[in-house]
Structure prediction request, 385 residues.
Amino acid sequence: MLFLAFIFFWVAFIALFVIWIGYPMVLWLLTRLLPSRFEPGEVGTSDKGSNDRLSIIIAAHNEEDVIEQRLQNMLDVAPADFDYEVIVMSDHSQDKTVALVEEFASNNKRFKVYETTDQRGRAAAHNQSIRHVNGDILIFTDAETEFAPDFLDIVGHAFDDEEVGYVSGKLSWRNRSGGVTGENFSLYWRFEVWLRQLETHLGICAVGTGACCALRKSLFRPIPLSSDVDCSTPLDVVLQGSRSVFVPEAVAIDYVAETASNEFRARVRMTSKNFDCTVGLWDWAGFFRRPGVSTGLALHKLGRWLTPFFALVLLACGTIAVLAGEGGVVSFLTILGWLAIVLALLGALVPSAPLLGSLWSFLLANISFAAGVIKALANRTPQHY
Prediction:
């Protein structure tokens, strides 16, 4: 029994080390040795109207409180180098969302609004919106998101590279109340941004951000109702032979969850959708055709979602060793792990403490990963917002 506990402990430890330390460090070393696979085009190098047209698609469901501000933002950040249109796809909104967009559109013909017949979720709204777009580049976003100046030009010029089929911008998180939930989350997000930059440099990025992403219309494939444009779409693009890239210069602003419970629910929903999509869409053919991307998916995405399960194995097996009176590295790491959990739980009480709050945010993220994976395996992946 003790021998098996040691074996499973070290298997779990090695898995966690590779996912969180080994993989990022290998990526970093490779980026120091290899030239970048992606160089974005420069803004202001072409006259307006001479490039592809941009179709900005805003998925909306009962967004009367924010939709006017979002439409005004689109006017404020209108691209200088591209012609564009804005499509608001209302997913059966029951408030004034459609009426407000229609009023706004009456003074600007670039704006249009369409409705789904019933509430079917964001993926269905995106799928239906394709019938109405006239652009060559599709840009997907949300009603609460705001684009920074030059966002549309930067994203548009990323497609100057003919091998690029999917582009994801960088979300900058805003906290409405000035609370610390968003601050702690931003630490985790900065690590994610760093990984995406490294993967883009090496040409193996296959992840996106649904609130600020784009792709060539010719590469669009219908999105499964349990997925979204941040998961199935970049995989579809890569499987068609094009590349997915992350462009941190293209900044969008969004609001982070204000409470731990809201953050938990959002992450559970995101994890279940992404896990279900990645496992279902990326088969053995994808693995052999794109081994670099497959490695990134396994260690960046799947490995992260499976982290809580590896951690549970490590702590359980390590605890057996501690109770058996074993000393050494296994017991030391186990005690260190339990101490980190205790400090994280204290962070839930004092989230403003930098270290404690960050540990609590990390623990909450991993609990939500576990819940999301279990939900996906139980075929309970949500299809609505």
